[in-house]
Amino acid sequence: MGKPTSPDEHTRTRQQRALELRLAGRNYDDIAAELHYASRASAWKAVQACLDRTEAETVTEYRYVQDCRYTNLFRAWWPAALTGDDKAASVVLRTLEALSKLHGLNRDTGTDNAASMSPAEFQQRLAEYVELATTTTTSAALTTGGDTPTSTGDTTTALEENNQ
């Protein structure tokens, strides 16, 4: 006889609990200890197995929780990155990379140039993007009759207000 295709009820319940703990912010070492998995890798595999089988709503919820965590991290470090803080620029870059990965935005790109970018290069690129966004947004506002924000300051202010 071959290996069973689906786990037994006890295994499914344990995997579901592992996922719930992960959604609550627990790390894999804690999950392994609480649920008596042999290692953090076993706890990770349990969470992944549950995600593979779980309804789309739970996966969407997990993705949403991770998105919120990354967004909060981004908001906390963004103002310092704009002032030239190298550490903040590096944290922002890694956070944006994680968000891109979470949402599948970096699939099939072939290369990963962002990982080799220094904080100074990132700041330069960021300044270029902000300038481009300001120019593009201003042009769009003129074209659409002013329905779009006219500066990136509007976005920064909104982020700061949400962060308070």
Number of helix segments? 7
* DSSP E strands, number: 0
Q: What is the CA-atom radius of gyration, in angstroms?
A: 21 Å
| Shape, principal axes of CA atoms | elongated
| Percent in strands | under 5%
Tell me what you see in this structure.
- By secondary structure, this protein is an all-alpha fold.
- It has two domains: 46 residues; 98 residues, no CATH class.
- It contains seven helices and no strands.
- The longest helix has 27 residues.
- The chain is elongated.
- The C terminus is likely disordered.
Quick tags:
164 residues; mainly alpha; 73% helix; elongated
SSE blueprint and pairings:
Elements: H1 9-23, H2 28-35, H3 40-53, H4 56-82, H5 86-102, H6 119-144, H7 152-163
Helix pairs in contact: 1-2, 1-3, 2-3, 4-5, 4-7, 5-6
